[in-house]
Design a protein that fits this description.
The complex is a heterodimer of chains A (about 425) and B (about 500).
Chain A lengths: L3 E2 L5 E3 L4 H10 L5 H4 L5 E5 L3 H8 L13 H13 L11 H8 L14 E2 L1 H4 L5 E7 L8 E7 L13 E8 L1 H6 L4 H4 L6 E5 L7 H7 L5 E4 L6 H13 L4 E3 H4 L2 H10 L3 H4 L5 E9 L4 H14 L2 E8 L3 E7 L5 E9 L11 E8 L7 E7 L5 H4 L7 E7 L6 H11 L6 H13 L3
Helix pairs in contact in A: 3-5, 10-17, 14-17
Chain B lengths: L21 E6 L4 H16 L7 E7 L5 H11 L1 H6 L1 H8 L2 E5 L5 H18 L5 E5 L6 H10 L9 E5 L7 H14 L5 E3 L7 H11 L13 E9 L8 H26 L8 H14 E3 L9 E10 L4 E2 L17 E8 L9 E6 L6 E8 L8 E2 L9 E7 L3 E9 L6 E10 H4 L7 H11 L8 H20 L6 E6 L5 H8 L9
Parallel strand pairs in B: 1-2, 1-4, 2-3, 4-5, 5-6, 7-12, 9-18, 14-17
Antiparallel strand pairs in B: 7-13, 8-11, 9-10, 9-11, 11-12, 13-15, 15-16, 16-17
Classes of the chains: A alpha/beta (about 425), B alpha/beta (about 500).
């Protein structure tokens, strides 16, 4: 589906007039849903799109800047990875690529349509208000505020009569920070508000704290940025009872489903009590997804963590104790891949070894579609009952991933995530 | 094989959509369905994190209960579920309210409106309401009128009505009820519930057919010899004699549950998974269905009534000996019939449908029997020709599917014998399925009508059985009620119905 533009050209208003303008826009009419706006939710998006901004500035990508995860952007980013001297297994959306691109000279200008290009995956949920904070590369740029009413026009089916509006705040970091005070009054108090932090958690910490407090429901991606910071934010917010969704955790769904499926067979279920070894291979040097997977398994099977250390460079080795007192060894290794996933640290393989009493050992190997599992298949597995599955990777744009989260509509953190995050945090050697 | 434990890795993996803030209003809240099915289903949804915090249930009935009395009664009814998770019950039950309401009294409706506004303020339910009519079918029409008259159905985006079965007593009354209901609200506000459609296995008929390429090419008259649809109960009439005496097996089971299974089994492939696309195809196939002999229905239908049975230590009363049943009752507790579907896919393929109370087993299934191999190269190990292939879709219990086919029997000869390839939900999925009402209540509150019957479907289903209904009411002697012993598979006449076609009912 093609992205949709707002129906009217966005109106640029002085920041102090935005709230009044929107109030007049929706309160001037009768009580029908069109004139009063959708009674759904508001979505506040932190949309730096640093890589896209740099690629356009350098002339490596055609404008306009949209903030959408489009194929041309990913292609240009992949091409930029080796020219910036980064390892080939660097993800095209990795923050280190943005930093490297920032060192290169270039001044190509282009229209900035961030916040005005609404992905249909988002618009189909008919947000009441979509507020985009769009920091510009020029840190000193003044604050611009754009406003437009918006009625989603689905490609199939009749047009909806339920409308919302978009607000874009664009400017340098300083200006955005100063303009933060106008964001809160713009969020309808009677509706749920989601905040999607579509960038690394390492940047703009004051702004992050300013817009992401409960009861707002927070959407982050722990695949981007410093692992310790990502896991800290996740565990602190979940522990405080805030609804927090992690796209990196969401991407684990097919791995968790496939592993669960292996043990759905009643004849194998008992083997879960006899796991002795867990190996996880992840792409590159971002360990969070692998740690979340290991923590989920450990939490579900009631293991207690004894120690966790670095091993073989960027690998992580941990010891757990099962409820029956037997030790479990967990090892997570970064592996180089030729065609890296969009998301740093994606799992490429998983091996679980179970040694039930009076039965042959069971070795379960899950492989990613692209990475292969030769490393995990080695090491004397031939004498075990071997179960191998290929986990289908469904790479979706961030917008579609967020759409799924919005569709779920949960007002609390996924209990499985909340239960395993503290463990994942402890698994990360500090 | 070890006992079936829950797979710890499976727990909590399903993350389904949360229902919008709303108040579910149950009319008939003092009745059985509320505490046996509806409140347990809602509590399950709450424990699955599918209910938002802005949610309330308002029970309505004529009894003068208070909120606390209603909560206590529900707590008593759900004691075993609550014991597993008392904390959740505490939170959930805070959203249970009760209002004495007689839908026929306008004062009560005014009070109901005010109470709903109060709940909106208290629970932030945003004027979104689902009204569940769990009342006597005689009050469906007047109940809808009362709600519409009080302005409670005015906003089609915020109010819905769920109507239990039976929807009408015959074609004419179903048409009239549809007319009344549609005058009160739009079709997309009306959810006619058939709890069979909430069963995983019934929905699985769609997935089996349309997610696999191996079945659809042979799912037609070229390969299928006949289809049998059975819903058997071991129980008798229990405490439902008052209702059952006026309905009988045809109205109670065939017109709704069995017809829905027939529709899902026989429908054409929808263009996409969309409520209207699915319901269009179901309606079309029901419109093409007919009794095998509409002019003389007694040739294609058998009625039965269970008599006494059991043994001296555990005797079973006959239907006429049950409490509140007329000792001379001619209400059928068993019905079997033969249908045809006049379309390109199914022309000439007989569909045999049967249901009964006091059968030897509780089971529901759809059995597709394929045509025999054109040439018999091998002898069957049991003698004679090899058996036909069968695909058995088990709706309940032991939900799953069986595929029966011939293999070589061990030994030096080339004899064949049938074996079963079995799929069981219990064994293949590490957690139990939800009750049908869990799925259907959630769908109704989400506004998803896929698993609810549309007005034209209901009417087509009644039209299909009109010759039988008329015959039973006007010339019952033409369709006698044959007695059968309790805990047997129905009257012998039912076997004769298939014997005439050289077939047998499957004995599961």
């Amino acid at each position: 589906m093609a992205p949709q533009l707002t129906l009217q050209a966005p109106l640029e208003l002085p920041p102090q007039d935005v709230s009044d303008y929107l109030g007049r826009l929706w309160n001037g009419g009768e009580q029908d849903s069109t004139s009063s706006g959708a009674a759904t939710f508001s979505l506040l998006v932190w949309q730096p799109s640093w890589i896209e901004q740099h690629l356009v500035r350098l002339g490596r990508l055609d404008g306009p800047i949209t903030g959408l995860e489009r194929e041309e952007l990913l292609q240009a980013a992949r091409q930029a990875v080796p020219t910036c001297g980064l390892p080939l297994s660097t993800s095209p959306l990795a923050p280190e690529l943005a930093w490297q691109l920032g060192q290169l000279p270039g001044d190509q200008a282009s229209e900035d349509l961030r916040g005005q290009h609404v992905d249909p995956a988002i618009s189909l949920h008919q947000p009441r208000r979509l507020i985009t904070l769009a920091p510009s590369l020029d840190g000193h740029q003044h604050l611009e505020t754009l406003v437009a009413a918006y009625c989603p026009l689905p490609e199939d089916g009749p047009a909806s009569s339920v409308c919302g509006d978009v607000v874009v705040m664009r400017g340098g970091m300083e200006a955005l920070q100063r303009g933060l005070g106008m964001v809160n009054p713009l969020i309808p108090a009677e509706l749920p508000c989601w905040v999607w932090w579509n960038g690394t958690l390492d940047e703009a910490p004051d702004l992050f704290e300013g817009i992401t407090q409960a009861p707002r429901r927070l959407i982050i991606d722990t695949a981007i940025g410093t692992p310790a910071r990502a896991l800290d934010v996740l565990s602190q917010r979940a522990a405080a009872g805030q609804a927090i969704s992690d796209l990196n955790w969401y991407r684990l769904s097919s791995w968790r489903e496939n592993l669960a499926m292996v043990f759905d067979h009643p004849g194998r279920r008992d083997a879960l009590a006899h796991v002795v070894q867990l190996d996880i291979d992840v792409q590159g040097h971002q360990p969070v997804q692998g740690l979340l997977m290991a923590a989920w398994i450990a939490n579900r099977l009631g293991w207690s963590l004894e120690s966790s250390n670095h091993c073989d460079g960027d690998g992580i080795s941990a010891s757990f104790r099962r409820p029956d007192g037997v030790a479990v060894q967990v090892r997570q290794m970064p592996v180089p891949v030729g065609d890296p996933s969009t998301h740093p640290g994606s799992i490429v393989g998983l091996r679980l070894v179970c040694r039930p009493e009076h039965r042959a050992p069971l070795c379960v190997i899950l492989c990613g579609e692209t990475g292969g599992c030769m490393r995990l298949e080695a090491g004397g597995m031939a004498r075990m009952e071997l179960v191998e599955q290929v986990v289908t990777s469904t790479i979706e744009s961030a917008q579609r991933e967020v759409s799924r989260t919005l569709r779920g509509g949960h007002d609390s953190t996924n209990p499985l995530l909340a239960a395993c995050v503290p463990l994942a945090s402890r698994l990360l050697p500090r | 094989m070890t006992a079936t434990l829950t797979n710890p890795l499976r727990v909590g993996l399903r993350q389904e959509r949360v229902i919008s803030p709303q108040c579910l209003v149950i009319f008939g809240a003092s009745g059985d369905l509320t505490h046996r099915k509806l409140i347990p289903a809602l509590f399950d949804l709450f424990r699955q994190r599918r209910l938002p915090s802005e949610f309330a249930v308002l029970g309505c009935a004529r009894r003068p209960w208070s909120d606390d009395e209603f909560r206590q009664k529900m707590e008593a009814a759900l004691a075993s579920k609550i014991a597993d998770d008392p904390e959740s019950w505490k939170t959930f039950s805070a959203g249970l309210f009760y209002e004495p309401v007689d839908l026929q009294k306008s004062d009560d409706l005014v009070r109901l409106g005010k109470r709903l506004e109060q709940i909106d303020r208290q629970r932030a339910t945003r004027s979104n309401r689902t009204f569940y009519l769990s009342v006597s079918p005689a009050f469906y029409g007047s109940g809808c009128r009362a709600l519409a008259g009080a302005g409670l159905l005015a906003d089609p985006n915020r109010s819905r009505v769920v109507i239990e079965k039976p929807f009408g007593r015959d074609y004419a009354s179903a048409q009239e009820l549809n007319r009344v209901v549609k005058s009160c609200g739009q079709e997309n506000q009306i959810f006619r519930i058939d709890h069979y459609l909430g069963k995983e296995t019934v929905q699985n008929i769609l997935v089996m057919r349309f997610a696999n390429t191996i079945f659809e090419p042979i799912w037609n008259r070229n390969y299928i010899d006949n289809v049998q649809i059975t819903a058997a109960e071991t129980v008798g009439v229990e405490e439902r004699a008052g209702y059952y005496e006026t309905s009988g097996a045809l109205r109670d089971m065939v017109q709704n549950h069995l017809t829905q299974m027939l529709a899902l089994t026989a429908m054409e492939t929808p263009g996409r998974y969309d409520p209207e696309a699915i319901r269009n195809e179901k309606a079309k196939v029901l419109q093409a269905a007919r009794l095998a002999d509409e002019a003389e229905p007694w040739n294609c239908c058998v009625r039965g009534q269970y008599g006494p049975g059991g043994n001296s230590s555990d005797p079973l009363a006959g239907y006429r000996q049950e409490p509140n049943v007329d000792p001379n009752s001619t209400t059928e507790t068993y019905v079997a019939m033969k249908l045809f579907i006049d379309n390109w896919r199914w022309q000439g393929v007989p569909f045999y449908v049967r249901t009964g109370k006091r059968m030897p087993k509780r089971m529901s299934e759809v059995v597709l029997t394929f045509k025999e191999a054109p040439v018999h190269l091998f002898d069957s190990s049991g003698g004679g020709a090899p058996g036909a292939n069968q695909l058995i879709l088990r709706i309940q219990p032991n939900e799953g599917a069986d595929f029966r086919f011939e293999v070589k029997a061990p030994g030096s000869g080339m004899r064949s014998r049938p074996v079963d390839m079995d799929f069981s939900y219990d064994e293949s999925f590490g957690e139990p399925s939800d009750e049908g009402y869990v799925r259907l209540l959630a769908d109704a509150m989400l506004g998803d009508p896929t698993l609810f019957t549309r007005s034209d479907e209901v009417e087509a289903a009644w039209r299909l059985y009109t010759p039988l209904v008329e015959l039973i009411e006007q010339q019952p002697w033409q369709l006698p009620v044959y007695p059968y012993e309790a805990s047997t598979w129905g009257p012998a006449a039912s076997d004769s119905l298939l014997a005439r076609d050289g077939l047998l009912w499957r004995r599961p």
